[in-house]
């Protein structure tokens, strides 16, 4: 897979390193000569250019890329790169970094963004996830398809504890994609049971999040006499 990354700062270089380790082709683009540090990621291609300019993106052969990542520290630049990548070059997958949470509403398919990654939101979500059980935590927003990646740790007293995945009437427009149980990562099957302490990852429509949280966090009624 060929990936172009706009922004060769610490974030861009870190992403490039991970992708290269996984066997992908990576092109790093930055207009600042001081950011071109070939020795830090020698396996990547490097281009000194303004990623907001069509001529630069032509030189980068963006039409050959499977993914474009707009990873600069400037939200305006990331939006422009995303829009050009999607509309001018038809890049199948565009991922954009959101630096200011106030701008998050702009990072949607209208600007060519398939996945918006807000570092402040993600960090706060991870903090919430670490301290909350039974509360739905939004980890990531997918612009294309209007869905979110959400997480909930199943509480001990949940009515669904011990229930098989296939026996649960999940809300519409939701999909259980992963169960994290201790150090294990499980791809859920209908026969898998839900256990207290399981971290459940869902892709869900925003309108279904409250319904999903209510379903998973519902308490058993005390039936004692």
Describe the structure.
The chain has 225 residues and is of the alpha/beta class. Helix content is 24%, strand content 26%. It contains five helices and eleven strands, in the order E-H-E-E-H-E-H-E-E-H-E-E-E-E-E-H. Strand 1, helix 1 and strand 2 form a beta-alpha-beta unit. The longest helix is centred in the middle third of the chain and has 13 residues, at 75-87.
Along the chain, the helix and strand elements come as EHEEHEHEEHEEEEEH
| Coarse structural class | alpha/beta
Q: In one word, what is the shape?
A: elongated
Please state how the strands of the largest beta sheet are arranged side by side. 3-2-1-4-5-6-7-8-11-9-10
Helix % is 10-25%
Q: What is the overall number of helices?
A: 5
Task: State mean pLDDT (0 to 100 scale).
Answer: 87
Content of β-strand = 25-35%
Q: Between the first and last Cα atoms, what is the distance in angstroms? A: 63 Å
Largest sheet: 11 strands, mixed
How many DSSP-defined strands?
A: 11
Please tell me how large the radius of gyration is. Answer: 21 Å
Poorly predicted tracts of residues:
220-225
Protein name: Trk system potassium uptake protein TrkA
InterPro entries: K_uptake_TrkA, NAD(P)-bd_dom_sf, RCK_C, RCK_C_sf, RCK_N, Trk_Ktr_HKT_K-transport
Domain RCK N-terminal: 1-117
Organism: Streptomyces aurantiogriseus
């Amino acid at each position: 897979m060929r990936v172009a990354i706009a922004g060769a700062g610490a974030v861009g270089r870190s992403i490039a390193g991970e992708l290269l380790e996984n066997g992908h082709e990576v092109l790093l683009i930055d207009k600042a000569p001081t950011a071109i540090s070939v020795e830090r990621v020698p396996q990547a291609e490097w281009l000194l250019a303004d990623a907001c300019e069509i001529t630069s993106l032509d030189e980068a052969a963006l039409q050959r890329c499977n993914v474009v990542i707009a990873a600069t520290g400037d939200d305006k630049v990331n939006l422009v790169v995303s829009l050009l990548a999607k509309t001018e070059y038809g890049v199948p997958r565009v991922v954009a970094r959101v630096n200011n949470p106030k701008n998050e509403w702009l990072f949607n398919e209208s600007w060519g963004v398939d996945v918006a990654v807000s570092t402040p939101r993600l960090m706060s979500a991870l903090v919430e996830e670490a301290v909350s059980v039974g509360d739905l935590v939004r980890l990531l927003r997918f612009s294309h398809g209007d869905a979110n990646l959400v997480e909930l740790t199943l509480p001990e007293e949940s009515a669904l504890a011990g229930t098989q995945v296939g026996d649960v009437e999940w809300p519409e427009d939701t999909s259980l994609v992963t169960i994290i149980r201790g150090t294990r990562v499980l791809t859920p099957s209908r026969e898998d049971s839900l256990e207290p302490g399981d971290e459940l990852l869902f892709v869900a429509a925003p309108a279904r999040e409250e319904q999903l949280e209510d379903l998973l966090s519902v308490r058993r009624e005390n039936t004692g006499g």
